[in-house]
Design a protein that fits this description.
two-stranded antiparallel ribbon; mainly alpha; MetI-like fold
């Protein structure tokens, strides 16, 4: 490379970095600085107004000895398990059905996607009314068939599945749209060849559609697990961690510790531990995806 071309190349890189500089500054201001600040706060008995006292790893040791912290983790992983069981397969099935539809496809796309763009607060309030044990729509519907009223949000055994069912319903449209886009890349020649061999609809789905969209499914699974481990808004609005801590998840416990109990140092330490767990889960999933 001549000196002139080398100079032009260096100048081009310099201009590129100049254009990236505003974004890097904003990213550092709103991402890197809060993260570093949080790590720093986690080592202190932090005070909002007075003097903060450095206590080292005491907040982390306290977290490992806190029984409610472990209950919150148990509930969080239980929520993740339910999210996979309840919410992972339906978007695939609905997307396949919509892909085969000949009429009203656009209408159904919009209908399924409206809950996705609706605020979680609004959805949670709506479903809290649906789950109401006295005048809720769900219990009224079940009573038509002779079933007794159920405490969807007041029964410790039903509260977490009820919340995850609502969250899965809200997120259904996002998965449907993504899978519909993936289905457009399935070669029609494969379906035609299978039909010539006498393959039925479900045979084509199992042996052609599912293997073809498997990379998208693996990515969606990773996002589903990570998202379910960060569940907060629905718990905060619908149950506030109850009944009997049956829906107390890590994110909600951290929030209460920080803003109700005003113990920011301990809450930040738990948030750092949560971050490490999420990083570990993501790493394991990516390794499994590669294999």
């Amino acid at each position: 490379m001549s000196k002139k071309n080398e100079y032009i190349s260096k100048k081009g890189r310099g201009i590129a970095w100049l254009f990236l500089l505003p974004a890097l500054i904003l990213f550092a201001l709103f991402q890197w600085y809060p993260m570093l600040k949080a790590i720093w706060v986690s080592f202190f008995n932090y005070s909002y107004v007075g003097k903060s006292v450095f206590i080292g790893f005491d907040n982390y040791v306290r977290a490992f000895k806190d029984p409610l912290f472990w209950i919150a983790w148990k509930n969080t992983f239980y929520a993740g398990f339910l999210a996979i069981v309840i919410g992972f397969v339906p978007p695939i099935f609905v997307a396949i059905m919509l892909n085969e539809a000949r009429k009203f496809k656009s209408f159904f796309k919009v209908a399924f996607y409206i809950p996705v763009i609706t605020s979680m607060v609004i959805i949670s309030i709506m479903w809290k009314w649906i789950y109401n044990p006295d005048y809720g729509l769900l219990n009224w519907f079940l009573s038509l068939f002779g079933f007794e009223k159920l405490g969807w949000l007041t029964d410790p055994k039903l509260s977490m599945p009820s919340i995850i069912l609502m969250a899965s319903w809200k997120a259904l449209g996002r998965g449907v749209i993504i899978y519909l886009a993936a289905l457009q890349n399935v070669p029609e020649q494969l379906y035609e060849a299978a039909e010539i061999d006498g393959a039925g609809f479900w045979h084509k789905v199992w042996h052609i559609t599912i293997p073809t969209i498997m990379p998208i499914m693996s990515i969606m699974l990773i996002l589903k697990v990570i998202g379910s481990l960060q569940i907060f808004a629905s718990v905060y609005i619908m149950t506030e961690g109850g009944p009997m801590y049956a829906t107390e998840v890590v994110a909600h416990y951290i929030y209460n510790t920080a803003f109700r109990d005003m113990d920011m140092g301990y809450a930040t330490a738990m948030a750092m531990l949560m971050f490490l767990v999420l990083m570990f889960v993501t790493y394991i999933q990516l390794k499994l995806k590669k294999s």
